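We modelled the chain as a single entity of 631 amino acids. Its sequence is:
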Amino acid sequence: MTTRFSAGDDEIRSALGDASVVALLPAVAQLTGDFSILRDDLRPDPTRVIEPEGGLTEAQQDEAREIAFAALQRFRDGEAGGVGRERPTPEELGRLMGFVVSPPNVEEYFDLLREELAVAGEDLRAPGWANDAGHPFTVAIVGAGMSGLLAAYRLQQAGIDFVVFEKNDDVGGTWFENTYPGCRVDVPNHLYSYSFAQGEWAHHFSSQDQLLDYFRAFADEHGLRERIRFGTEVASATWSDETATWTVVTKDGGPREFNAVISAVGQLNRPSYPAIEGLSSFAGPAFHSARWDDSVDLEGKRVAVIGTGASATQLIPEIAPRVGRLTIFQRTPNWLAPTPEYHEELRPGMHWLVHHLPSYGQWYRLWLFWRTHEGLLPAAVVDPEWDRGEESVSAANDLIRQLLTAYFAMEFGDRPDLLAKVVPAYPPIAKRIIRDNGIWSKTLHRDNVELVTGSIERITPTGVVTADGVEHEVDVIVYGTGFTASKFLTPMQVVGRNGVDLHERWAGDARAYLGITVPDFPNLFCLYGPNTNIVINGSIIYFSELEVRYILESIRLLLDGGHRALDCRHDVHDGFNKRIDDANRSMAWGASKVNSWYKNANGRVAQNWPFSLLEYWQQTRRVDAADYELL
């Protein structure tokens, strides 16, 4: 690595002041080749990994910055004994990783972490093969959101022919459709981005427009748009036992045959409206947060927002200052996770570091991954000996409850009436925890905002009537009521072997092996399928990258073996799902009775992955031919 820079001491010191020292020291060691700076006394505490700097004190952080500064000084002035490598050797990489994740974990996690690190821009999840022989094989991808674009890119790398069908007029999926005020991601953006294609992020947690720009740029850079049929919704996909192909029919066109179909429609793409009497009777404007109507002027209006989930808690603080009166109807309060930097821009030093320390961005991303790879998952596990009812599920879970309750007390202590309404009565992690930088309290404290917790009885032409008989007259209704997450692959009709209809087979209880394949539906692959949602650890992009690799390896298995299709074995599928169900029942989100989009209409957790991120990586790294019938 020969990168040099001529920045002055003040400039370097200023930048280092904005650095995460856990990422800084390995980045400097890699650049300079000086591994002596990776001191054991400055290593993050593995028991406090969830903290921003792994439990390092301010004094330790200051010392780490001084050590990094001195090393960069020597490097800048040509006094270093040598320089590092753009691509460190495995031994060197192990030492660097060992500083971030602690040595006992390096061996088990080494290959996974190497993929996530993508040092020097390596793309270790790219297909390690190509269809050089030109075997005819075509794939239909349904959806051009995050997962669909990734699948298209990987197929393109492998030389596999494909077409993407996208119902919208642009790429981006949920980031194209959700344009409500305040819409942003709740995963740090250095994680919510492809491991091999890091963006230059302006914020810690990017807003919708920035994320849409990222996916648009990705599609443009890799020439994917020419393979996408925009404004084209798939109506049906039907398998032919005779030709071993799928016939895909769109709503505006005739049939076309494909060897495989990849569903990349996601879980959170079809708005869910509440079953409330008189829903269509309201005389004023009414719309769902996912179908935001910019033509409706909210200035000075009386506005009702029904729901206080993730979308609603983002949009409510944005519109509250503009409306005349805001009435919020809450069915279930949310636990809030204090996130002071949630709306903050990255400090200038972070941008300097990314540009002057070639690997700083990668090491920062790896530290974020390691901090969240388990996250609060252990605190979600039910202790069968713990008996606190709906309050908590274990001692660790109860500690989280106490900490989060203390945050509520700090934010709402001056308003006992509000405090009583906002503190949840169910275990933490049973529902999605909402990030908050204090804005929820500030919003509910406003004079023009009312939080209503009584149940809604009906909607009238002029407002919302609650169970106490009070009619709340409003001019506009916004439904922040989430998505039909359990209705996978709807509204497509999907027909498999022997005429089996997928939705009839599922009967509202979707299941798949690894969340990807379904028996009797050969060469049908799901992305963000059943039980691949993660709750409090990691990024969904991680899952998509692993799923797409698995799909590409499945296609490779077919082409190398001269097979036409693979069909998941029933016993493999059923055994996997029994294990998933057993584990989900032992997690807070399965044990609690609280309403949640994690559960389908049958009460089964059909969304969540209850195990570690490492385990999913291990299970999807290779395709076991024994799991399938090869046709």
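As a brief sanity check on the tokenised model: Residues 540-561 form the longest helix (22 residues). The mean pLDDT is 95.
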